[in-house]
């Protein structure tokens, strides 16, 4: 593992910029508006307090997003974060198992021809293996559920050998009462069955008791 650089030193891919919307610099992507968010022309503010992936950048980590990357996103909810990912990346498969947010996610995808919503359980990758490309460049995981390492391991099959996993571990989803540090260590230990952990960083102050992890398949 390496020390994370300062957030402003993390190189951003084409399509992702730092921009001041009036309250200081924040990340921004260009695309159709989703819900209440600050905009400037076609630029949309990507708020770290509403997105673990944006907070991962704010923590000084490079999650491996790149222009035209093929992305599998697990735990898409109503599409807040995955909309920004699809503004930047190529084909973006968005898995969410709760029907209600998927309705909103489908509306977000209506405006984006590279975003493909999938109503599916991320613990059962066989249910979407016929749709999702293999050799994905990036696997983003933000599923607030027990067994977060196991979900990442089961979906490793979709990643290219040189792909990246950008995972947000929520301690309380694994163990409500456990010390978050112990919980993170246990999840990272399990994750190492299939991944080499490259960088980790706390997502505070944006998201309490969350750890960002960037890893690659091994
Ligand atoms: C913290 S929210 C995700 C927020 C979203 N990533 C964003 O930033 O816009 C976690 C989501 O994971 C979903 N989830 C939990 N377990 C899941 C599973 N096994 N398969 C698919 N989605 C799951 C939940 O329904 C919830 O919408």
Automatic annotation (TrEMBL):
Q: What class of enzyme is it?
A: transferase
Assembly, per entry: Interacts with nop5. Component of box C/D small ribonucleoprotein (sRNP) particles that contain rpl7ae, FlpA and nop5, plus a guide RNA.
- Give the residue spans that cross the bilayer: none
Region entry Disordered, spans: 1-40
Q: Which Pfam families does the record associate with it?
A: Fibrillarin
The record's function comment reads: Involved in pre-rRNA and tRNA processing. Utilizes the methyl donor S-adenosyl-L-methionine to catalyze the site-specific 2'-hydroxyl methylation of ribose moieties in rRNA and tRNA. Site specificity is provided by a guide RNA that base pairs with the substrate. Methylation occurs at a characteristic distance from the sequence involved in base pairing with the guide RNA.
Q: Name one GO molecular function term.
A: methyltransferase activity
User: What family name appears in the similarity comment?
Assistant: Belongs to the methyltransferase superfamily. Fibrillarin family.
Its GO biological process annotations read: methylation; rRNA processing; tRNA processing
Q: Which UniProt keywords apply?
A: Methyltransferase, RNA-binding, rRNA processing, Transferase, tRNA processing
- The EC designation for this entry is 2.1.1.-
Kindly provide the name given to this protein in its UniProt entry: Fibrillarin-like rRNA/tRNA 2'-O-methyltransferase
Q: Which organism is it from?
A: Halorubellus litoreus
Range of residues in the leader sequence: none
Question: Domain of life, per the record?
Answer: Archaea
Which residues participate in S-adenosyl-L-methionine binding?
80-81, 96-97, 121-122, 142-145
Keyword Transferase set for record: yes
């Amino acid at each position: 593992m390496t020390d994370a650089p300062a957030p402003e030193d993390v190189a951003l891919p084409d399509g992702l910029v730092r921009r001041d919307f009036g309250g200081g610099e924040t990340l921004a992507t260009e695309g159709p508006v989703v819900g209440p968010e600050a905009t400037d022309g076609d630029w949309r503010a990507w708020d770290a307090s509403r997105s673990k992936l944006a907070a991962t950048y704010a923590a000084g980590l490079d999650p491996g997003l790149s222009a035209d990357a093929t992305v599998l996103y697990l735990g898409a909810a109503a599409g807040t974060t995955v909309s920004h990912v699809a503004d930047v990346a190529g084909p973006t498969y968005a898995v969410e198992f709760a029907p209600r947010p998927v309705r909103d996610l489908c509306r977000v995808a209506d405006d984006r021809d590279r975003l493909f919503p999938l109503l599916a359980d991320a613990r059962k990758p066989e249910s979407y293996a016929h749709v999702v490309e293999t050799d994905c460049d990036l696997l983003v995981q933000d599923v607030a559920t027990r067994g977060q390492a196991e979900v990442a391991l089961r979906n490793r099959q979709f990643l290219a050998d040189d792909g990246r996993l950008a995972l947000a571990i929520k301690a309380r989803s694994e163990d409500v009462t456990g010390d978050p540090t112990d919980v993170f260590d246990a999840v990272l230990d399990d994750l190492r069955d299939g991944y080499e952990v490259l960088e980790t960083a706390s997502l505070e102050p944006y998201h309490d008791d969350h750890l960002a992890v960037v890893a690659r398949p091994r």
